[in-house]
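Posting this for the archive.
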Amino acid sequence: MIKRIAHYYAARWLRDVFGIHLTPRQAYQQDYLQSPRWRLLRHLARVRDGWRCRECGSYRRLQTHHTSYVHRGEPGVSGFLFELMTIETLCADCHKQQPRNPDKGE
């Protein structure tokens, strides 16, 4: 866990020093999905859901899905709790069946 956190901050520092600009998807992957905040949210959601898929009840290949992106990354405790309420644990198969962008219905 400490190694991942160190990697996250080292990658951000190197990008700032060398001016590397990532595509929006790459930046999202690097900054948000590897942040300590997302790791904590993901863990809390999986604990809340009993380490099972909400759709089929499977224990295998679990992923965390946003049901809405409205509260993603909001600052403060209230933003953290709202985001926790809008994520759910799904297995990989059930996650594939969910809309790619739930706010747009895509």
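Residues 2-96 form one domain. The first strand starts at residue 62 and ends at 66.
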